[in-house]
Amino acid sequence: MKKHFYSILLCFLAFGFYQCKGQTETESEPYTYKSGSFDGIGKFYKGREIAHVMGYQGIGWLERPEREKEENTSRLIENMNIQPGDSIADIGAGSGYHVFKMAPLAGNGLVYAVDIQPEMLSEIEKKKKSSGQGNVRIIKGSEKSVNLPQNSVDKILMVDVYHEFSYPVEMLESMYKALRKNGRIYLIEYKGEDASIPIKKLHKMTETQAVKEFEANGFRLKENKDNLPWQHCMVFVKK
């Protein structure tokens, strides 16, 4: 009887240890887990709950006619100062909305369209064929990697997608490796500081939160181009 009691006690303590381990952010385990919100996955990084990924069913929203007016996507592209010969990666490229705005400007350079959803990549492939844009390379990423060669890109663009990464630490590590020495990351996120912007809370980010996460992974904020209607345009470089 006593042996049975100690076995139960041991199992209880082991269960408690496992549960506590998931709640504590450490160097080896940067994420915490707890009951999350409806729009989140119950996984947290630096105090921020990670949002659910928007599925390919949202292609229509990505391609909505009013997007230019709402987000001023033309100015966003201008902010990137794309030069002929630039090698650019659009991480979480979705339907390729920004890819085919950047590709003509890159000239003899390359634009990598990276996404994890086959349906999104298929949509980009269709656009590539219809546009005849030969400098677009389609890459299937994973939850933990952008799957790009080391030192291969001058600029990385992420539009309203970073907050959905299930493994932000691993993704930033893979981007750090892919980015050239003087390369730049353009992080575009809806402004979490502005409650009037009609976007769900978990699909926004504050500048403070973004800096906290990027600085922990080898980057520093060079500038925040505050010239978009609803979004931050934060420019990060390697420390």
TrEMBL record:
This is Methyltransferase domain-containing protein. The lineage of its organism: Bacteria, Pseudomonadati, Bacteroidota, Flavobacteriia, Flavobacteriales. One of its GO terms (molecular function) is methyltransferase activity. Gene3D superfamilies: Vaccinia Virus protein VP39 (3.40.50.150). InterPro entries: Methyltranfer_dom, SAM-dependent_MTases_sf. Pfam families: Methyltransf_31. The keyword Transferase applies. Residues 84-210 form the Methyltransferase domain. Keywords: Methyltransferase, Transferase. GO terms for biological process: methylation.
